[in-house]
């Protein structure tokens, strides 16, 4: 005998999971994108770029 499916339960679980994921994506994105590591890396790359530009013009 095949397993009985429950489409309404599956739909509710799917919708609830998507709602939770959509609600938490912004804080996770902000946490990952604005970590101090990325700020330090961005600053270090800017300094390296300025140094190479200054060296190439001399």
From TrEMBL:
Top-rank taxon, per record: Eukaryota
Keywords of this entry: Signal
Signal sequence region: 1-22
Protein name per UniProt: Uncharacterized protein LOC106779123
């Amino acid at each position: 005998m095949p397993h009985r499916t429950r489409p309404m339960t599956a739909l509710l679980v799917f919708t609830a999971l998507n709602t939770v994921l959509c609600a938490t994506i912004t804080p996770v994105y902000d946490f990952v994108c604005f970590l101090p590591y990325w700020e330090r890396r961005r600053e270090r790359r800017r300094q390296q770029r300025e140094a190479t530009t200054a060296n190439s013009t001399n």
